[in-house]
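Re: that chain you flagged

S.,

Sorry for the slow reply, it's been a week of failed gels. I finally had a moment to sit down with the sequence you sent. For the record, here it is as I used it:
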Amino acid sequence: GVPIAIELDPHCNLTIERCRLADIIVLFKEYPHIDFVERGEELLDMLLATIRGEIRPVKSLWDCRLIQNFPTTRQPMRGFVDKIMTMERKDKILSISIGHGFQSADMPESGARILVVTDDAKAHGDAVAEALGRELWAIKDVSDPPHLEPGEAIEAALKAYRDKPIVIADTTDNAGGGAPSDNTTFIRELLARGVTGAAVGPVWDPVAVRFCHDAGLGAKLPLRFGGKAAKASGPPVDADVEIIGLSENGSQTFGGGKVPLGATAAIRAGGVEVVLITTRAQAMGLDLFSHLGIDPAAKKILVVKSNQHFHAAYAPIAADVLYADGDGPMVRNVLKLDYKRIARPIWPFDAVVHPKLLL
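Prediction finished late last night. Pasting the structure tokens below so you have them in one place:
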């Protein structure tokens, strides 16, 4: 008899059981997830209205039978999200959520799903969920931006630079998806090419951070950093560095909140500056760099270890944003993943699939 309402990241898996057990589910709509406060307020409003007996939420869940990346900062996904937001709070529709799914999860109920919550209008909710699910299917081939190899991304950035930074997302070393964030491929490529005016971050290496703090600001020393967690981290970088920034309690901003980075250090090796962190996180706010005295807007190339959450802060200062499919553990091409438990058929593994209403 107690209403249960939950707010979730759209990269959750909208399982049938989860949707049956909760009275109301609302997912963040934006990717990067900058709207969690607004969605939380909507959720609370619906929960209170349910308790007061003003609405009777019912759910419709459509399985799209596809695995794909859906950033909302570009078309056609931008327009799709804008459309569903205009549909809410009309015609008995209380909420519409796009469950992107988590493509690295090897479980039977992986994949994209549409969840529609209506005010006691199940048949209408079912029809809306199906229509939106089929619309999402129609844009699946063009929703994800192209991804370059690391060398290609650097070359493209050097050619495109004019007076604003070119941002490169090192997507396969994204701590937000579970990667260590200590892959060294981009750093080694930048150093080998003799690139100047470049910055990379964050690189998770608590040991190197401690060495930097012990040596002190302005110190110059040979330092081994990165490449520690796993084979996919690549070999460590050995370089003569200068310590250009230190913080015992570093942080970055995201969606109005503070994301802790622990003790941090900024080092300069040749023409490349690197932010080292202790508390593992992906790149989100510009203060990832600026809290250590690095001005991200003054750089030619910014390599950020993130899939998409960097975009809200970095795109406004950038001439262009490129996405790289590096050799970190978060494989971008799902066809390369060795799934064993996902339910088949599902796109892109199968050409013929069977989308359906689940709830």
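What I noticed first: The chain is about 25% helix and 25% strand.

Talk soon,
D.
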